[in-house]
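User: Fold this, then the next.

Assistant: Folding the first:
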Amino acid sequence: MRIAIAQIEVIKGNIEKNLENHLKWIKEAIQNKADMVVFPELSVTGYEPDLAAGLATNQDDTRLDEMQSLSDKNGITIGVGLPTKDESDTFVSMIIFQPHKERITYSKQYLYPPEEPFFKAGKNPLVLKFETEVVSPAICYETSNKAHCEFAKRNKATIYVASVLSSINGINAELKKLSDIAKTNNLITFMANYVGKSGGYECAGRSSVWNEKGKLIGQLGDKEEGLLIFDTKSKEILTAAGAVL
């Protein structure tokens, strides 16, 4: 299985322009025969808690239809970050597009404490089952909660994909934490991060993949957008853009 992580720069609150950029990188992933591509936390709007309630939508938003079309036509699973809402609450969510299936909204279950005035915690734990792998999606602060990884392992996950915003001040701790998750849980682990600015943070890039022993086997740079692809069968790193270690 080929899994891609997209490292992007976002325009604050501009859903239409950000979607254009998502489509560019999804098409790049398709060109590289990826089976799945995942973007950073709240990638469609940027990480903007104070704007999230006004920007929030749901998985059936017609602006997302082209992503579903690309998924259907190319057999690719796509995970993008978006604030979603119900009647009264706003959630930090990942919309998951699968070929010829109903879209899934996975909402962040473990909130970073400063997020609590803006968001409600989700209650829908999830793994995605593929022919050869079981993928556990994680949204940023969830990686700090052992219960999240424990759920993944109970459900026989083989891949852990973290969709994050990590700043230049927090990136080293984030990288160590994810390496430890990979090693402790015997999971191939991915991290998709931003470059540029979002939510008042200077984002650190360095989107990465670790093997099951926690060894870093691929990483993008800290300034440029890029795509990092790992083939779980051949154990090869591929890239469409960005510097790889």
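Now the next one, as you asked:
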Amino acid sequence: MEFNINIHIIIGLHGSNAFTHRQIIPDITFCLEKLSSKEHHLKVIIAHEFGHVLHNILSEQAGVNWANMQWEHPYTWLLQEGCATYFSKQIVDVNEEIYFLYEEDREGWLQFANNNKKEIIKAFQLDVKHLSSKEVYMEWFSINGGSRFGYTRLAYFIGYSILQFLIEKFGEHKAVMLWKKEEFSHEIEKVLINFIN
């Protein structure tokens, strides 16, 4: 796979640790003051961001109609983060929590997520129904969120769990390309309900 994209390295803006730009084949930005100095942490976050790009490249090759994409829907973000996490796990071999945190798990994030999966997903579903997309993003996807449970970016755990379920059900390629289908939101909803029950 060839990546013909721009990589930006910025410092002093105090945003996220890294992100892809809102493009079909996105550029990547890394925010130096928010990154760990440990090599294995850096490898994971780099792999994660390139995982986003890979997801979009594969989607473009599969003929996704980008005009129909629900970019502002949390279910889209769940698939994106699930895929980026999944792809990073194919490239870098580290402790499980680092795929979600990009650092060591000092506060029991992964144990909390595993032990409270049903409650976390119920709360996420309630917020999707009652909050704006921006509020859902800030609480569940942002490194500055996490007020509900005291842990940030729990949506990454949900997204990865969803993708694992979808891979078992449909196979890898169909799971990763699920956002191409009209029934995408309905399928994500079904998986979330399955986890809750």
